[in-house]
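Review this:
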Amino acid sequence: MTPAPFVNKLVSLKQSIFYILSFRICFQIKKKKKKLDHFQI
């Protein structure tokens, strides 16, 4: 059996990594949209 605190740490680590990745992806998409807007103008 794995100790509960260790599992909780793993889950929180996975969640934080997921949040950071999604935030970075959104940021990159916004930057690309801004570049596209500049090209359209």
